[in-house]
Design a protein that fits this description.
Blueprint (H helix, E strand, L loop, with lengths): L22 E2 L4 E2 L8 H8 L2 E2 L2 H11 L5 H4 L3 E5 L1 H9 L4 E7 L8 H17 L3 E5 L1 H7 L4 H16 L8 E5 H5 L3 H13 L2 H8 L7 H11 L8 H4 L6 E7 L3 H10 L9 E5 L3 E2 L2 E5 L15 H11 L8 H7 L7 H9 L3 H13 L4 H24 L3 H7 L12 H5 L1
Parallel strand pairs: 5-6, 5-8, 6-7, 8-9
Antiparallel strand pairs: 1-2, 3-4, 4-9, 10-11
Helix pairs in contact: 2-4, 6-7, 9-11, 10-13, 11-13, 14-18, 16-18
This protein binds tryptophan (TRP).
Length: 417
């Protein structure tokens, strides 16, 4: 095994982006190209695998269901060892899902919903437990927030997550601040991870420097810990070896490269991953939607009118600059934000294909495309708003109480082995 001082070759990407390259870290996502990040290059740089047709077919075969449109349309585009998860399922062995959210703002936006919509589909399809980490500690360390404010935001954001429809019998949502102080097993995993990773390694992976506070430097161990079933003894009956699958946006991959690297040192299984692309800002795919720039984002709290105005005013158009030009040359779906959003949120494949054809040929005008998108988003946000209004503080408390879920994991006797 490689010494802990050396960053092993495998799984460690070429971290520093060169001039022309896209920048993708947990803190910055940007591209100079108007088409946005080059995701094929990112797969090469990160050393992950492309989700290809063969894998999609295998998922359909194992689940007996058509794959979700976010998979079908290449929005979840990259993975690490998803094939292993399918083999686990075929062998009748258990696995669980882990995802998370950094609660840095009161209002979540459309982009934040993507991993949760997809995770809900995974939970329904595979019928497995799900743990959701709310990293209030992370946001306290990185942002100008008090620890209590970050913790309050964790509870507020949990309401939006619950509104996505997760099953309370299969889902545990936790704030780091609260859960870590109540669960010695979680803390033991954190310590073991902290012992297995050097400053040199996190420097290489995350670009930390000597002037970063020590909280940041040790934080990756906290995001890594939920990848190990032993960190949730009440859910997994103290079993240490239940396989984990993490759906996330690709900017979170550095955390899990580190986790996969340290796992064997702990005698644990490496988590598998499914990576999504980013949800583009209204201004275009050079940057992702960001809660700190209101003109780049559609929030889950926006009114129908705000949605309409923002799309009409800000959504970058790939159409011609005049109606004549558009009719003559057609529109460019690959940079058109309204079309990209339709790809994320419209469930109707046929309609989407029709729009693509008509917009590309110039027959469909930007105004009509935007109008259709506005309808789709008003419905989606409206329904979300209604479901969120029904989420009480009591329900949040229940989701966030450490407890056994509806799954059984053998006897204590077996668990000790
Ligand atoms: N760091 C993530 C964020 O800032 C939150 C997070 C914690 C997460 N654990 C995760 C995201 C696991 C995806 C998967 O949003």
């Amino acid at each position: 095994m490689a010494s802990t001082d050396q960053v092993p070759d495998i799984e460690q990407p070429d971290q520093k982006a060169t001039e022309e390259e896209d920048e993708v870290t947990p803190w910055t996502v940007s591209s100079k190209s108007e088409k946005g990040i080059n995701y094929d290059k990112l797969i090469d740089r990160f050393g992950s695998s492309k989700i290809d047709d063969a894998l999609l077919k295998r998922i359909e075969k194992v689940t007996g269901k058509p794959v979700h449109h976010l998979l079908r349309r290449g929005i979840f585009f990259s993975h690490r060892e998803m094939d292993l998860i399918l083999t686990t399922v075929e062998q009748g062995k258990p696995f669980y899902l882990y995802t998370g959210r950094g609660p840095s703002s009161e209002a979540m936006h459309l982009g934040h919903l993507i991993p949760f919509i997809f995770t809900k589909w995974l939970q329904d399809t595979f019928d497995v437990p799900l743990v959701i980490q709310m990293t209030d500690d992370e946001k306290f360390l990185w942002k100008d927030l008090t620890i209590d404010e970050a913790n309050r935001l964790a509870h507020e954001n949990a309401k939006d997550i619950i509104a996505c429809g997760f099953d309370i019998e299969k889902t545990f949502i936790f704030s780091d601040v609260e859960y870590i102080s109540s669960c010695p097993d979680f803390y033991k995993y954190m310590c073991r991870i902290q012992k297995g990773v050097t400053f040199n390694q996190v420097k290489g992976i995350f670009g930390f420097t000597e002037s970063d506070c020590i909280g940041k430097i040790s934080f990756p161990a906290i995001q890594a810990a939920p990848s190990f079933s032993g960190a949730f003894p009440m859910i997994f009956n103290k079993k240490q070896d239940i396989q984990c699958l993490i759906p996330c946006a690709i900017d979170q991959d550095p955390y899990f490269r580190m986790t996969r690297d340290v796992a064997p040192k702990l005698g644990c299984k490496k988590p598998a991953l499914l990576h999504s692309t980013f949800f583009p800002a209204l201004q275009g795919a050079q940057s992702k939607m960001s809660a700190s720039d209101p003109t780049s984002s559609i929030f889950l709290t926006d009114t129908d009118k705000q949605i309409k105005d923002k799309i009409n005013k800000y959504a970058y158009s790939g159409g011609g600059s005049t109606v004549e030009e558009h009719k003559e040359k057609g529109g460019d779906c690959s940079v058109d934000v309204a079309f990209q959003y339709m790809k994320f949120f419209s469930e109707d494949d046929e309609r989407l294909a029709q729009i693509e054809k008509d917009y590309t040929s110039g027959e469909l005008l930007t105004g009509y495309l935007k109008k259709e998108l506005i309808g789709v988003l008003q419905k989606l946000v409206g329904e979300h708003r209604e479901r969120r209004a029904k989420v009480t503080d009591e329900l949040v408390r229940e989701f966030m109480t450490p407890r056994k879920l509806k799954f059984d994991y053998g006897t204590d006797q077996q668990a000790k082995k």
